[in-house]
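tool_call predict_complex ligand=iron/sulfur cluster
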Amino acid sequence: MVTKLKVILTLCFVKIKKIMLAVKKKKSMKEIMTVYYMEAKTAKLSGKKVAWITSGGPVEPLIAMDIIPVYPENHGAMIGASKMGVDLCEKAEEMGYSRDLCSYARSDISCATVNGGPIGGLPKPDMLICCNNICGTVLKWYEIQARYYEVPLFILDTPFCHTEYSEEAKKYVRRQIEEYIAFLEEVCGRKMNYEKMDKVGRLSVEGQRLWQAVLDTATNSPSPITAFDAFFHLALIVTLRGTRIAVDYYKNLLEEMYQKVDKGIGAIPNEHYRLLWDNLPIWYRLRWLSNKFADYGASLVADTYTTAWCGTLKYIDVDNFLDSMAEAYSRIYLNIGIDEMAKNVIEMIDKYNVDGFVIHSNRSCKPYSLGQYDIQKIVQRERDIPCLVIEADMVDERNFSESQIATRIEAFMEMIKEQKGSWSRNSNYTE
Amino acid sequence: MCVAGIDIGSITSKAAILSDGKIIGTKVTFTGYNAALAGRKVYEDLLDELTIDETSIKKIVSTGYGRNSVDFVDKAVTEIICHGTGAHYLNPHIRSIIDVGGQDSKAMIVDQDGRVKDFVMNDKCAAGTGRFLEVMARALEVDLDSFGLQSLKAERPSKISSICTVFAESEVISLISKGEKRDNIIAGIHESVAARISALAKRVNVRSPIMMTGGVAKNIGVVKALERKLGMSIEVSEYAQSNGAIGAAVMAMKL
Ligand code: SF4
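tool_result ok
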């Protein structure tokens, strides 16, 4: 029985190697992600450990320690995109979890018990890494999973940065980074290789810069990329940040975007209006939403969500990665005050030259959705552009009402059109 | 030249016909389960009433939640834009519109040309809408038409704290069993509806002059309570319920 299992696993391993070789040539997102998940699922065979980590957590030390990072939130996005969210959320509710709990948490918790979802459940973790820079929900969620899988949990506590990052906070978080590394060393039974850590840090920064450059191509009109494209391409900067694979992927993508810009090819056929998106994507309705906006010639050229994985580059010193990383991870978009968030939004409005602001009020993600009305007010006061609030949820379709949202989008677009008249950025566009 | 506007709402369907820019008739009927049929029927009924032949209608615009279910119209426009246009047509000075229908409520700001500058809609909930009043009137066995008037007779409005229609209904039932005066309960219900609507209206910063439209505008109790909450007077036109259809007809004129 055991030898049979070994043979099967060895065959799997050979297959992964083959796919990996193929990926070297093609590097499509689907292949990279398939290999990534297969490698994680067969980690035991290669003697590697698997760590589950929150999306805003510092992944670089894991990569440097050769630990495979796995993201329940990325898994949640896959569950949402494959429209399996309602089923899994209902299961969690049957288990006793409140419907008000984040739908990523609900679907992950219930998925673990049935190995369901689009990829038959996540690979089992050897440890959990939880950083609360994104929300407080993850604390309880990871505690639950640590008990369920009976594995050690490391919590990295990042103080909320209303406006500044104090000396105390700096020391506090830096100290925890040391504890984090010590934790990894203990679980793995070997020491951190700081030379490798340095390399991973550099790759992480390079990947983030490339990702930012990709998003920045949206400053062109027409924009070669929309937020909907960014939601798709985002996967690698989240899951494989700090690896060569991510760097190579974004280099190619950037090249592709530059070519589109040179040829004047827009992501949508007729870009008449440019919009900014706020909050997580509505994973199960991406196509519907993108068509709805495209029908009006509206391109969602930028969003506050995908920029979160390169938004703190300014705090990172590549020659002093671990120290500066502590600050960068503390000052991410969801861990700063509302005034700071509004400042970021206004910077994006100016940078990407947008005509309207679309706000997804996400029933699941409280830290992202709290304060949106204030941000809207600030934006309207400072830039006087139309804003639209859409109430929905990123995974739980029960919180999405198609006809209500369609009416709001249509009215919003009619409003922008009326206000702008036949005005358009595309000189060849006449109404 | 004649044009028509058809507003297919969740509970009632409305039609309006303009001739050379003047309203010559409006009509309100119940929508029922078939929105397309309701749109057709209210339009035909109005044509019959006015003894106008369909061929003399040059353009038709539909609006309301059932706007895309009718295929004989020239264009479908959202109720937000139509209410803005309709209110501006009825009174060009209007700067804010609060529309409360059977299933949703919304508030809009318009500029001097009647163009919508900003709007908000209520969330997926019946509280603060016509449906809420309907449920409560039934629980209290009061005719919906006199519901508003009766609320003005209260000495001390009861406190209804639940914002959910279902919970508020049981709150009302427990008030009844406690022997609370019916007028006070009715006034409390109107206060609670007005509180919901004014919160919505304040979110877009409504400013004077304000017009209230939609079926609930016919309810004097809600209008008065809302005026108190906002500290501003509210204009209600005789065409309040047909305002969306009138706006649609005005849009048809521009096609
Ligand atoms: S609440 Fe928001 S930040 Fe937290 S896990 Fe859910 S989606 Fe992520």
